[in-house]
Amino acid sequence: xxxxxxxxxxxxxxxxxxxxxxxxxxxxxxxxxxxxxxxxxxxxxxxxxxxxxxxxxxxxxxxxxxxxxxxxxxxxxxxxxxxxxxxxxxxxxxxxxxxxxxxxxxxxxxxxxxxxxxxxxxxxxxxxxxxxxxxxxxxxxxxxxxxxxxxxxxxxxxxxxxxxxxxxxxxxxxxxxxxxxxxxxxxxxxxxxxxxxxxxxxxxxxxxxx
Length: 210
What we know:
- It contains one helix and twelve strands; from the N terminus they run E-E-E-E-E-E-E-E-H-E-E-E-E.
- The protein has one helix at 122-126, and strands at 12-16, 27-31, 44-47, 53-55, 64-72, 79-82, 99-104, 109-114, 132-136, 151-158, 165-171, 185-190.
- The protein is mainly beta.
- The radius of gyration is 17 Å and the shape is globular.
């Protein structure tokens, strides 16, 4: 049977590792008011040298996943809340006020993600757990909904320490458990997180999978 999901939604917070309470809380950062890049809800963001965040380039240690933004419209003078950053060329921003970005930045945050490829069956999908993998079609999304369309490139599952995420489990719901079709889901965490103990500065990632 086919899965109900045929496309991605980026990374969706589901919990944290361990048994502690999970608030799926965010931390406030800033986006440069002249940043023309769209950053979608559920997309990975990275720290930049100017003290602001930007969309991932899959080379710099990730800071987290964007939940939404807040800025002041230069025409109306009103505060705008949005689930994504459309890019400065698509909005009117009052540069006297910061563009606030709210990021799921706990290094131990777990996310669900849709696989862009297929496996033979559940057993072969389960064998991907504890591997690392890259995200596919990063930084894409819908300008109508603001939602990321990023998916997990399951064909990249390997021990490589420079990939985007660590696979920690299967995420199973009744509508998306056909592992031979696109749309099955995994539980992952960000690999080489900027705020983790071994990646306290932007640099080479060092988290080898098995």
